[in-house]
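G.,

No rush on this.
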Amino acid sequence: KTLKLSCSTLAKTIQRFNRTGSTQNSPRNGRPKKLSAHAQRHIQRLCLRNRRISAASVAAEVEGAHYNDLN
């Protein structure tokens, strides 16, 4: 009642701390990013510079710049 949290929230937090030693959320699973942060910034700049550019043109420019992080 002092913390204004439900009993289940407290119990799960304590269990997580005992299991991992931390109360932080664990990283989630998911598909890895195809583009690096640098490539994403490049795409943003392209689109802001020319708002009428087509998606195909952006894709061609990114492919030509070899920003993909794929091995």
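When you get to it, here's the other one too:
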Amino acid sequence: MVEAWYMDESQEDQRAPHRLQPNRAVSLEQLRRLGVAYRRLDADNYETDPRLKEIREAENYSWMDIVTIHKDKLPNYDEKIKTFYEEHLHLDDEIRYILDGSGYFDVRDKDDKWIRISMEKGDMITLPAGIYHRFTLDENNYVKAMRLFVGEPVWTAYNRPADDFPARKQYMKFLAEEAQ
């Protein structure tokens, strides 16, 4: 089961857990109110998993690939790790399914505080278009993930500040409606 918590303000190694002391856990319901969707799937059988097929059809995830983030597998590894960890948003949902290894997605809550989401094998997450977020490996330094898209993939990340994009405005409207 996925675990999430509020992060401390430390600038130490980004791969460390960075839990507040005492820990402030974040529930799946709290993530849902931010527009973050979570599913648990059978990563050992992703190629034939009927549940993954059902999700892809229901959500129109027509395109997918698999990326391995490890210093020996990813070209320009150091540069990519820095880029992934820069706070940004996308104009489309970001869907990631962890097939092996582990890492962290960090998202901003409605008060602009960081929440760290620990992702492991079998976890699928959908981050809504317009949410500020970032990704990093954990201390294991390895993750293999499926990237899913509706239609052709768009890889463009817009670093903060990017508040003038319609996707960000729509996301902020969603948050305001959730707060009512």
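Residues 2 and 46 are 18 Å apart (CA to CA). The chain is about 20% helix and 35% strand.

Enjoy the weekend,
O.
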